């Protein structure tokens, strides 16, 4: 059967990891701008002011701000039909509090969208992708405050009206279920609790996290309603970080732990945004976390009226769960887990499981029965530049090939899959560590972990391979 004729092939980035120009064009400081660099053994630090002697990778990132025409031309050469990007909130409202938007920031995205249109590429815009205005963290402790709902909807109204004839596809929040985990405090919700400055280790207050996610759910539903009023042709989706697990054994406690993790992490947010209500197990989850949510009758009405048009997801790897603590552990996107003895892993310890993608797509489509889109998938790896400038990334091709085959199997199973945008289609800085050496792209950016380099763009072997995949609508993978 294969992919449908209007299947959307492309790639994905986020403004805070790709754009740079952090202090140009009237842009304000975001939460991402306050993160120093880090390594696997030394986490990124959150600073309340920009400190001398510290390096902030997101300030320059891959410098799309000055290279967007060149980058879009390269995307077009690969045959992109869609480009997932985000709009930096602080480029439009520098603190989030302004009554009037920053025209220079609006004009920048006008130029980007016009360039995409000139090359026949459809933008897919994430409205909020881990870059809350830092002012809103300082003054409201991020999404823990209900005040942010109206500020976000104001931001949405501005960009919906400005780009109503240039953008059709929107995502309200990136990986919104990151808030179900402790690391979501600052990354996803802009919540900065007292204690360590470590990005990954700051003090966790579940009450603030879950209340913050509720505020995001309401804001998302209001944005969906507003967007459809401004342009009924808008397609507005949610975005969930899928963190699939398997029970390590057939021990009944492993099965119960597996079920609970799927419910608490993978289904919780999707149920609210697709079905318009909290799942049946939410009350027990809140009780276990010591959470008492403030949910008004008006909130419930809004959630029901503002459900999304499609469901998008990130998928990188799977892990296992076990009732026993005496197990080997492995890494993953946002969440570590028990090592699966049947899977190989990436340079960063993420287990490679294309069959898990087929399983996941079938599971989600069976649960929600709305179109799905994979908006993040890919292999973070060390890339070597040869003396002649070539970059042979057969490992990346092998990873993507296997996952596209799994997607095709899911489509043949009956899943309504609308598109695929591999993550970091051009090399970007890592969200978790700020490193540049963890590369995902089809296009190499000459920059190191400290922003040194020419920022010259180079095509990897995967560039030419992906161009062939797109031209054949996923039929030619070898």
Automatic annotation (TrEMBL):
UniProt cross-references to Gene3D superfamilies, sorted A to Z: Glycosidases
Keyword Hydrolase attached: yes
Residues making up the signal peptide according to the UniProt record: none
Keyword Chloroplast: no
GO molecular function, one term: 6-phospho-beta-glucosidase activity
PROSITE patterns attached to this UniProt entry: GLYCOSYL_HYDROL_F1_2
EC class name: hydrolase
E.C. numbers: 3.2.1.86
Keywords linked to the UniProt accession: Glycosidase, Hydrolase
InterPro entries attached to this UniProt entry: GH, GH_1_N_CS, Glyco_hydro_1
Family under the similarity heading: Belongs to the glycosyl hydrolase 1 family.
Designated name of the protein: 6-phospho-beta-glucosidase
Organism: Ruminococcus turbiniformis
Lineage of source species: Bacteria, Bacillati, Bacillota, Clostridia, Eubacteriales
